[in-house]
């Protein structure tokens, strides 16, 4: 039924026209009077090829009528354009075709196709000069700002009669615009292919111009956004280091111009980082770009994604023994910038393990302590902060004097901001009681060749001190079997407590 109805409307009941059905006014965009209907899902039209063939006939007829109307128009400018397009120099031909596309994009698709075909050729000089022209045409005249171009196969052919309200002229006009948009989509895909080829070249200026073209198209229009984004991200591994460094700046600008794409950009960069056979330098440039992303308040999910990338890359490089000072410095810098917006438990665990790395340079230790200070100041879990402090103090015994001094300064700053860390004695006692219960529950036969350490319960200490069978000589000082306990030397409430380990009777 649909097939016979369409055929009747196209030819049996057609009307004779002498003017184009699509009229373009100055200052108007073709997508403003075009329709955006499309099929939802994967539904396919059985007669799509036949209908598209008839739409192509209507489209070519409308172009011929428009050209005939232009030839009949009086005026020196119209005559000049017709002459220059055929007989002018390369630069004049380009200018004339650009004017024709501005005047009526629907009827100048052939001129646009010719310009794109020049970029496809291997003449790098001509392609370089045309990149800017075509970029401006696509952004300012041809590509819709809020939607992607729709191929003819995704049009609701079955609803054509309803959409056209039974009018043959409206139906033909709609089919012409559908066909033009579908062909324009193919032309733009060809243009993107040419841009990718130029970006892969060896001439630095041409590669940079191709990347800038991709950047502007991606920032301004949604058409082919995934391919353009992949083009830019993949160039982080370009053999030319200067160009790869430029790409970092391009991607930073893209994240600022299109803040809604930031998570998509991060996901694409993550795919590059974990891609098989990706170069180490590409990973380094990728981390450098991510470190320069300016996170905004409320972007917790994005910050968490960044931290997960940094932690995962750190683990992978350490496992492969490929970590060096440049990458470590880049990861620390990136983590410092992403940390205020989102921190997960995995981050704390990775940072805690990171403290054991003994191959830190002075610059890396400075960054590490800066990260630790920022991390621990914002951590609301006191027990975790205490664990970090204990590990720092333990490591200070085996590290350099500079490390020990920095650790003490860090602890001092933490205690100034969070004096509650000094008042954890009750919590420590509870933890000690819990440890004693665990110790009693351990089977002595459970020997995994690892030493186990447990705090001695306070009740046992009291029992030892109060035992009548132990006598103390008045002239013998108490000896500490385990050394002094730092928390008992802290002044609380204006009084000092000094409690040593239990004494034993001398000479026995």
From TrEMBL:
Pfam families: CBF (PF03914). It comes from the Eukaryota. One of its GO terms (cellular component) is nucleus. Residues 342-457 form the CCAAT-binding factor domain. InterPro entries: ARM-type_fold, CCAAT-binding_factor, CEBPZ/Mak21-like. Belongs to the CBF/MAK21 family. This is CBF domain-containing protein.
């Amino acid at each position: 039924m649909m097939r016979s109805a369409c055929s009747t409307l196209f030819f049996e009941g057609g009307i004779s026209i002498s003017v184009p059905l699509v009229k373009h006014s100055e200052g108007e965009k073709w997508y403003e009077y075009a329709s955006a209907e499309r099929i939802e899902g994967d539904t396919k039209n059985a007669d799509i090829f036949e209908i598209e063939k008839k739409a192509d006939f209507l489209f070519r007829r409308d172009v011929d009528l428009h050209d005939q109307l232009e030839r009949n128009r009086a005026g020196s400018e119209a005559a000049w354009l017709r002459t220059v397009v055929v007989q002018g120099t390369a630069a004049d031909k380009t200018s004339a075709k650009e004017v024709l596309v501005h005047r009526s994009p629907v009827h100048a698709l052939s001129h646009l196709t010719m310009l794109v075909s020049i970029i496809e050729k291997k003449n790098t000089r001509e392609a370089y000069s045309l990149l800017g022209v075509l970029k401006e045409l696509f952004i300012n005249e041809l590509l819709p700002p809020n939607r992607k171009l729709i191929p003819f196969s995704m049009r609701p052919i079955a609803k054509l009669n309803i959409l056209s309200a039974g009018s043959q002229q409206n139906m033909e006009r709609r089919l012409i615009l559908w066909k033009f948009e579908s062909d324009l989509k193919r032309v733009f895909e060809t243009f993107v292919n040419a841009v990718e080829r130029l970006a892969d070249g060896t001439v630095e200026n041409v590669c940079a111009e191709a990347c800038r073209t991709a950047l502007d198209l991606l920032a301004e229009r949604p058409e082919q956004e995934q391919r353009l984004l992949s083009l830019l991200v993949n160039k982080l591994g370009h053999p030319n280091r200067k160009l790869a460094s430029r790409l970092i700046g391009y991607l930073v600008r893209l994240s600022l111009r299109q803040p809604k794409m930031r998570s998509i950009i991060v996901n694409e960069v993550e795919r590059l980082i974990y891609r098989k056979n990706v170069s180490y330098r590409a990973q380094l440039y990728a981390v450098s770009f991510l470190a320069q992303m300016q996170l905004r308040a409320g972007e917790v999910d994005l910050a968490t994604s960044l931290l997960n990338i940094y932690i995962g890359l750190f683990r992978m490089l350490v496992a492969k023994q490929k970590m060096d000072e440049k990458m470590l410095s880049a990861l620390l810098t990136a983590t410092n910038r992403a940390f205020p917006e989102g921190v997960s438990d995995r981050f704390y665990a990775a940072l805690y393990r990171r403290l054991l790395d003994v191959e830190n340079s002075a610059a890396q230790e400075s960054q590490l302590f800066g990260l630790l200070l920022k991390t621990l100041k914002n951590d609301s879990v006191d027990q975790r902060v205490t664990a970090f402090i204990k590990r720092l103090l333990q490591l200070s015994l085996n590290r350099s004097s500079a490390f020990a001094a920095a650790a003490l300064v860090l602890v001092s700053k933490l205690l100034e901001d969070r004096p509650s860390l000094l008042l954890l004695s009750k919590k420590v006692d509870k933890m000690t009681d819990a440890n004693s219960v665990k110790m009693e529950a351990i089977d002595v036969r459970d020997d995994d060749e690892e030493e186990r350490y447990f705090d001695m319960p306070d009740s046992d200490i009291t029992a030892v001190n109060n035992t009548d069978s132990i006598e103390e000589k008045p002239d013998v000082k108490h000896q500490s079997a385990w050394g002094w306990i730092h928390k008992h030397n802290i002044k609380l409430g204006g009084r000092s407590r000094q409690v040593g380990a239990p004494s034993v009777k001398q000479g026995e």
